[in-house]
Every structure is written in structure tokens, then in C-alpha cells.
């Protein structure tokens, strides 16, 4: 299985990175192809709402920045994992820019290969996940009709094991 992990944390050794590392190791041990993109280290602009992608662009964004790398991976990804710390009740702004730019590649429908989505979230407060969950359920499970591969937070009891099990059952 091809897995694309979008890391929305600017901290290379924080909790989000630990969650990704746990998944990557477990998935690699099962033979899955895992690509991690640190979106905070990329030059990715926000969506311009210019509609180029759905008119002249035929699914391509008018902007030429590091989002091109993500678009290339999305074409044959089977599982998308969105990983982020919680900032002001939601995912990081850097990851939000990427999700907004999915409009070109995933609207009105995701590529056939993309079947599943998961979310890894880290927060200092166990009651801060509702906004991110709302987006995950509405945008990815509801609108795009992707299969729920897991919604795991660092406040879940034994999140390490939950991530390992997710990776092993792909």
C-alpha cells in the first residue's frame, strides 16, 4: 500500500513527529511504502479561489510551488494521513493551506487509488480535537467518501499501540 503522510508540525522532535515515526516504522515492517512530507518546510501558498483548476487548468492549480510534489503523490496514494498539532482548536495553518489546495486535485472526486484517510493529532489539552474531527469527518469521510483508517490523538490511551495496530491492519 502506498501511504502519504502530511506532517503539519514545525517541530522535528515533537509529539506529532513521534506519532508519525511510530506509524512509519510499523508500516515499513509490513512492507508498505510510506512517504512523509513535512509541509512546514515547504513553500506552499494558500488557495487563491481563482477557479483555474476547474476551468482552464483541468484539475491543475495555477500556482507553481511545492504543492506540486504533493499533487504527484496524491495520484497513486492509497492512504492519506494528516498529522498535526492542535493550534487554536484546529490543525496547523501550514497543513490547512495544503488541505485548501486539495480543491484542485480532489474536487469533485479523489483519485481512484485514494481509498482511506487517517488523522494523527497532538495537543496539550484533551478537549481540543473537535474542530479537527469535524473537518476530518465532513471533508474526508463525508464529502470525499474515503474510508476511515483511524483518528488517533496523543490523549488516546496507549496511542503508540493504536498506531501500530492501524499500520499492521492496512
Brief description of this entry?
The protein has five helices and five strands; from the N terminus they run E-H-E-H-E-H-E-H-E-H. It has helices spanning 15-29, 67-74, 93-106, 130-143, 159-168; strands at 2-7, 33-38, 79-85, 116-122, 147-153.
Order of helices and strands: EHEHEHEHEH
Please outline the major beta sheet: 5 strands, parallel
Query: Which class of secondary structure composition applies to the elements?
Result: alpha/beta
Please state the overall shape, judged from the principal axes of the Cα atoms: globular
Beta-strand content: 15-25%
**Terminal CA distance:** 8 Å
Number of strands: 5
As a whole number of angstroms, the C-alpha radius of gyration is 15 Å
User: Helix count, per DSSP?
Assistant: 5
Helix content range: 25-40%
Low-confidence sequence ranges: none
Overall mean pLDDT: 96
User: In what order do the strands lie side by side in the largest sheet?
Assistant: 2-1-3-4-5
Describe what you observe in this structure.
The protein contains five helices and five strands; from the N terminus they run βαβαβαβαβα. It has a five-stranded parallel sheet with strand order 2-1-3-4-5, sandwiched between helices. Helix 1 packs parallel to helix 5. It is globular and about 50 Å long.
Amino acid at each position: 500500500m502506498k501511504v502519504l503522510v502530511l506532517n503539519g508540525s514545525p517541530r522535528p522532535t515533537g509529539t506529532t513527529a513521534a506519532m508519525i515515526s511510530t506509524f512509519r516504522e510499523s508500516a515499513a515492517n509490513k512492507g508498505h511504502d510510506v512517504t512523509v512530507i513535512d509541509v512546514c518546510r515547504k513553500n506552499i501558498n494558500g488557495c487563491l479561489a481563482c477557479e483555474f483548476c476547474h476551468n482552464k487548468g483541468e484539475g491543475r492549480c495555477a500556482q507553481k510551488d511545492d504543492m506540486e510534489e504533493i499533487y504527484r503523490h496524491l495520484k497513486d496514494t492509497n492512504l492519506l494521513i494528516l498529522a498535526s498539532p492542535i493550534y487554536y482548536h484546529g490543525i496547523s495553518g501550514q497543513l490547512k493551506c495544503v488541505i485548501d489546495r486539495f480543491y484542485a486535485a480532489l474536487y469533485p472526486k479523489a483519485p481512484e487509488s485514494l481509498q482511506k484517510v487517517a488523522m494523527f493529532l497532538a495537543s496539550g489539552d484533551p478537549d481540543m480535537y473537535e474542530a479537527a474531527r469535524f473537518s476530518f469527518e465532513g471533508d474526508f469521510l463525508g464529502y470525499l467518501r474515503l474510508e476511515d483508517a483511524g483518528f488517533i490523538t496523543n490523549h488516546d490511551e496507549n496511542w503508540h499501540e493504536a498506531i501500530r495496530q492501524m499500520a499492521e491492519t492496512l
